[in-house]
């Protein structure tokens, strides 16, 4: 069996200390799976939790290969997925692992045509950022033209995607980010108003900007202290989208009283990107209840249309080597990164 390079979590700890490029066995696709020869793979905040051994959706003991989303060419496929062989694709990796490697496995239900106008790095940065934002804002958040949209962590990969999709839909977009560099990125992606949460109270700023009405949709990628404060500046009947938990203890599993949401008559809307046409009974009883491939195809077709028209483009902050992935995640954890950081594999 041939070997390949892979960025592996060797033990739990800070990414820069525990990630190493190692030689591992090249994987083989099973039924309904494809193998992607990886050109580029994105780094995600969830990768930090995996490195540190914090709570994640699929707990995995070290050593294991990091990497949730990739762009590359399908070079092999299992039974039922043969039609993907030879195609340039973007994919969510199997169990959201194994992407930062020469080859990665993905379930065919999570494989999509790569946008032809993006290079491999941009395409890897595109997939989760824009699919998540599209699902959140439109399928779950019911964003309409003329609505006011607040985007937290707005200078992140998902945040910049949310800004662009909001503008493309005709919404007024208020970006909340920390510091002038991040604010400038948000403005460059089309935000109508940028709030520096390190210098002013975003609640008051949003209420002033909306004549005390509040935002129709709040796209929260941050969690933590931002949650209840966001409820205070959500409009009557507005939608607060619970999507990310970068600032939450225990990765968002600490719980939060709902009384303050009740007094505002707002909707709390949960969002998770995972595509499945059937769910294991045990996972369903755990609470897992994803959308099917039909919804994914609708979203991806609209995203390809917007990309072809030039209305959306991923914000790639850094392109790094496999050897630099750990240090890049340390920068991400310290909030010193903007946009999406992508590992160039080959």
Write a concise synopsis of the structure shown.
This protein is an alpha/beta fold. Helices cover 30% and strands 26% of the residues. The chain has eleven helices and 16 strands.
Description:
The chain has 346 residues and is an alpha/beta fold. The chain has 2 domains: 3-118 and 314-344, Medium-chain alcohol dehydrogenases, catalytic domain (Quinone Oxidoreductase, Chain A, domain 1); 126-270, 3-Layer(aba) Sandwich (Rossmann fold). The chain contains 11 helices and 16 strands. The chain has helices at residues 15-18, 45-52, 120-140, 157-168, 180-188, 202-209, 226-232, 259-262, 281-286, 293-308, 325-333, and strands spanning 3-9, 19-25, 33-42, 64-65, 69-77, 88-92, 103-107, 111-113, 148-151, 172-177, 193-196, 215-220, 234-242, 267-270, 316-320, 340-344. Strands 3, 5, 6, 7, 8, 15 and 16 form a 7-stranded mixed beta sheet that branches. Strands 11-10-9-12-13-14 form a 6-stranded parallel beta sheet, with helices on both faces. Strands 2-1-4 form a 3-stranded antiparallel beta sheet. Strand 10, helix 5 (180-188) and strand 11 form a beta-alpha-beta unit. Helix 3 packs across helix 4 (157-168). It is globular, with a radius of gyration of 20 Å. The two termini are 21 Å apart. The model has no long low-confidence stretch (mean pLDDT 95).
């Amino acid at each position: 069996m041939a070997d390949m390079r892979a960025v592996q979590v060797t033990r739990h700890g800070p990414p820069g200390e525990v990630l190493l490029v190692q030689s591992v066995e090249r994987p083989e696709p099973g039924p309904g799976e494809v193998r992607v020869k990886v050109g580029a793979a994105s780094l995600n905040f969830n990768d930090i939790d995996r490195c540190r051994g914090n709570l994640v959706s699929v707990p995995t003991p070290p050593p294991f290969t990091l990497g949730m989303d990739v762009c590359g060419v399908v070079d092999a496929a299992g039974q039922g997925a043969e039609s993907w062989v030879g195609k340039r694709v973007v994919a969510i990796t199997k169990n959201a692992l194994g992407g930062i490697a020469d080859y990665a496995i993905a379930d065919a239900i999570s494989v999509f045509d790569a946008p032809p106008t993006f290079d491999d790095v941009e395409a890897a940065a595109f997939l989760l950022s824009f699919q998540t934002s599209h699902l959140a804002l439109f399928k779950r958040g019911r964003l309409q033209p003329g609505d006011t949209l607040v985007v937290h962590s707005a200078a992140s990969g998902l945040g910049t995607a949310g800004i662009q999709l909001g503008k493309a839909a005709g919404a007024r977009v208020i970006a909340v980010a920390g510091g002038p560099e991040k604010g400038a990125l948000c403005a460059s992606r089309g935000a109508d108003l940028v709030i520096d949460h390190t210098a002013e109270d975003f609640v008051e700023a949003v209420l002033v900007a909306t004549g005390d009405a509040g935002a129709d949709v709040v796209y929260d990628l941050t969690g933590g202290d931002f949650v209840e404060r966001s409820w205070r500046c959500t409009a009557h009947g507005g939608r607060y989208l619970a999507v990310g938990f970068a600032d939450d203890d225990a990765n968002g599993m600490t719980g939060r009283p709902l009384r303050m949401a009740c007094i505002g008559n707002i909707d709390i809307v949960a969002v998770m990107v995972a595509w499945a046409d059937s769910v294991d009974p045990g996972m369903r009883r755990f609470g897992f209840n994803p959308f099917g491939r039909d919804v994914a195809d609708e979203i991806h077709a609209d995203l390809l249309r917007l990309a072809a028209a030039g209305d959306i483009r991923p914000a790639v902050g850094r392109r790094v080597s496999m050897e630099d992935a750990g240090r890049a995640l340390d920068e991400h954890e310290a909030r010193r990164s903007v946009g999406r950081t992508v590992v160039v594999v080959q």
